[in-house]
Design brief:
There is one protein chain. The protein is built from 19 helices and 11 strands. With 462 residues, the protein is α/β, with parallel strands linked by helices. The protein folds into 2 domains: 6-66, no CATH class; 72-358 and 415-448, TIM Barrel (Alpha-Beta Barrel). Strands 4-5-6-7-8-9-10-11 form an 8-stranded parallel β-barrel, surrounded by 6 helices. It has a two-stranded antiparallel ribbon with strand order 1-2. α3 packs across α7 and α11 (254-271) packs parallel to α12. The chain is globular.
Length: 462
């Protein structure tokens, strides 16, 4: 299925797509879905030839736009929430670490079935590295899934945790900020029009005052917001998020939220008085990424401080006009917790590890592949084992890093195997859509979100 040269890619689209340097037209939608799109996805994800990879990504995105499938910002919807134009809805933001094409198809199917456009695809800066999915690849694979499932409308792709490494920042602030700006530029170019800045790693709770604790956090958040505003495509207002408490640390407080927002708004106005600020704020309420793993590999039950979440979301809306607060690390919570997010007016909920667990623990995943991944982790990542970890804890904690090295093996699974695993995850998506009240939200989203096509040109000479 891999193309050997650029000319082979171009010849494969004959009669399906009309391609010029600035435009792609869909000539035969059925052949695009039935014959071409799977091969373009395979090459976008797995080709070692950078020109073929980039061309495949561009063809997918351009064809998607021709069909009305548009990378979009959720900014307008969140601004409407800040104005209290709707309530009782929490938007799921889903990190897909592996089987991305198949699970994206499942998420789009769930959206279509539930008449919903209120869902976000996201990937964190760290995940880009260990899952070996560049921003352009990630967005292309998602858009291809939309084509395959006859989806139309906005596609919200989000850069989760554009995170500052505190050690690097304290050693060379300018270098670390430039590194993040380079990441953000690639994400913007790939259609990530929702970006979560995570400078909460710079919060120093040893400082005497809350302002001193949060100062680096809000200063960097303002600087990166300004960079985004200066580089976002014309006509698109990227939805930017901030974060006041690092996930897994102490719970956030109203004082921390107010100090961050006041400092952030002041700093941003100093940089550019006209720049629009963040639309949401991530807080810590008791969860941790992936959950707390017990010795047998199971996950300890975590209790979210919903009262704090409700209070912070209310302050964010009423005092600062934001859409509200964001909950991270939620996918491993007990099922009965999910309907509480809407009751506490949580704006957005981030979900990742639960879907990964479903894939690895599925009865449909071949034991041979599972064993191959786990053996790889034990041999190649042994240095990352923490003192005292059982084998079960080690595997659970690190199996997220098996998706990248085994991307081809996952993609090469038989179609019926991938479909069976996807059906399991789709059932989870469906449950979450109903619990978080995003069913029948299509008209609401279309009312507040503007669809603007990109003006990208072919990345290779044709």
């Amino acid at each position: 299925m891999l193309f050997s040269k650029v000319d082979e890619v171009l010849s494969s689209v004959d009669g399906v797509l009309s391609v010029s340097e600035k435009e792609v037209k869909v000539l035969n939608e059925n052949r695009l879905k039935d014959e071409l799109i799977d091969r373009l996805v395979y090459n976008a994800a797995l080709s070692d030839n950078q020109d073929i990879k980039e061309l495949s990504c561009w063809l997918i995105r351009s064809a998607a736009e021709g069909l009305g499938i548009i990378c979009s910002s959720i900014q307008g919807l969140y601004e409407a929430r800040g104005r209290e134009e709707y309530k009782d809805m929490s938007v799921p933001a889903v990190n897909l670490r592996g089987l991305t094409y198949d699970l994206s198809r499942a998420l789009f199917r769930c959206g279509l079935k539930n008449n919903s456009l209120s869902f976000i695809f996201e990937i964190a800066k760290s995940e880009i590295a260990y899952t070996m999915q560049s921003p352009s690849e990630y967005s292309a694979v998602i858009l291809a899934a939309a084509i395959k499932e006859n989806y139309r409308g906005p596609v919200f792709i989000q850069a989760d945790h554009v995170q500052v490494k505190s050690k690097n920042f304290l050693s060379d602030r300018a270098k670390e900020i430039d590194c993040l700006k380079n990441v953000i530029k690639k994400e913007l170019d790939a259609g990530f029009y929702n970006i979560d800045i995570d400078s909460s790693t710079l919060v120093d709770l040893d400082k005497e005052t809350v302002d001193e604790q949060q100062s680096f956090n809000y200063e960097v958040a303002a600087e990166l917001t300004d960079y985004i505003r200066k580089h976002q495509p014309k006509g698109i207002e990227v939805s930017v998020g901030g974060e006041i408490g690092e996930v897994g640390s102490k719970n956030s407080t109203p004082e921390e939220l107010k100090v961050f927002m006041d400092g952030y708004n002041k700093k941003l106005k100093e940089i550019d008085v006209n720049a629009k600020g963040i639309s949401k704020i991530s807080v810590q309420t008791g969860t941790s990424h992936g959950g707390v793993v017990l010795a047998d590999g199971s996950v300890a039950e975590v209790k979210v401080d919903f009262a704090t979440l409700e209070t912070l979301s209310k302050i964010a809306r009423e005092d600062y006009g934001l859409g509200g607060a964001v909950q991270h690390g939620a996918s491993t919570l007990p099922q009965e917790a999910f309907n509480k997010f809407t009751k506490t007016q949580t704006l957005e909920v981030h979900l990742a590890t639960g879907f990964q667990n479903t894939v690895y623990e599925s009865k449909n995943l071949p034991n041979e592949l599972r064993k191959e991944v786990y053996d790889y982790l034990k041999s190649e990542l042994a240095s990352q084992r923490k003192e005292g970890q059982t084998d079960e804890q080690f595997i659970y904690t690190l199996r997220k890093k098996g998706f990248g090295p085994f991307k081809k093996e996952f993609m090469d699974l038989p179609c019926d195997t991938r479909d069976a695993i996807s059906a399991e995850v789709e059932a989870e998506f469906d449950f979450l859509f109903k619990q978080m009240n995003v069913v029948n939200t299509k008209e609401l989203v279309l009312k507040h979100v503007t669809l603007i096509k990109s003006k990208t040109t072919c990345p290779v000479s044709i």
